[in-house]
Amino acid sequence: MDVNQLPTTAVLSDYVTVCELDGIKVLRVIHPKATATISLFGAHVLSFQPSGKKDVIWMSEKADFSGNKAIRGGIPVCWPWFGKAAEPSHGFARSSEWTLNEHRENENGVIISLTLADSPDTHDVWPHAFHAEIIMEVGDTLKVGLVSTNTGNTPILVGGALHTYLNIGDISKTTVSQLGNEYIAAGVRHPSGGNTEFDQEVDRIYTHAEETVVVEDLGYQRRLTVTNHGHNAVVVWNPWKDLSISMGDMADNSYETMVCVESAVHDRSVSLEAGDKHILSTVIACQ
């Protein structure tokens, strides 16, 4: 995605502008340390490119930016649940309009905060009071934190994921490591050697991954690291050929240049009493 080509609708600062992308509003960050694009629809990171490097985030060439459905690629915010724990799949945050709360900047980068609160529309799906905040720090690395707050009077259970799509040169030359000794696939637990390569569809929930997961991207001759906090699992996903072909918002060969490595609370195991907060975060670096 060429962030420089998007039409500008407002200038917020020297480094942050508001732009239009088809049917959605996006924040464009152009800083000496990195560029990034963030959609207010879904609080969704669409791109992150450290200075002098290729984009770290993968975006589908067939992604729908109308604001009518979740966006394929980037970093979707799956909340307040992950997967098919309830309807809609992956929760409602990724298809909700978020509000720009704050933007700050200095020589190290730009910090952007987006918020989402309960409303009659969310009560139709999930009858709880809440406040959610996404804090994104764009610099040499990309830091994304999801802050969940129970603003009601009764306990709530939340899960979720920062569903990060990483841009890679060639999936057949990619290895993800430091994943721990166990994963869940199709509801069944399996032993793990701690790393995985790709020659077929992979959809795994690693329950004992290390804090920092390493992606060896030999196609682009680089190493990506994904450092997670507040999670109980790391999800690794590549749809492979058949599933890519079946998806209308992915090209048939999309699987060749992406892999998802996600900081996740996969089972809605976080219990928040009234006033409690939980932070799920991920830090993505390119070496």
UniProtKB/TrEMBL annotation:
CDD domains: D-hex-6-P-epi_like. InterPro entries: Aldose_1/G6P_1-epimerase (IPR008183), G6P_1-epimerase (IPR025532), Gal_mutarotase_sf_dom (IPR011013), GH-type_carb-bd (IPR014718). The keyword Translocase does not apply. The keyword Oxidoreductase does not apply. It comes from the Bacteria. It holds the Pfam family Aldose_epim. Keywords: Isomerase. It catalyses: alpha-D-glucose 6-phosphate = beta-D-glucose 6-phosphate. PANTHER family: APOSPORY-ASSOCIATED PROTEIN C-RELATED (PTHR11122), GLUCOSE-6-PHOSPHATE 1-EPIMERASE (PTHR11122:SF13). Belongs to the glucose-6-phosphate 1-epimerase family. This is Putative glucose-6-phosphate 1-epimerase. It comes from Enterovibrio gelatinilyticus.
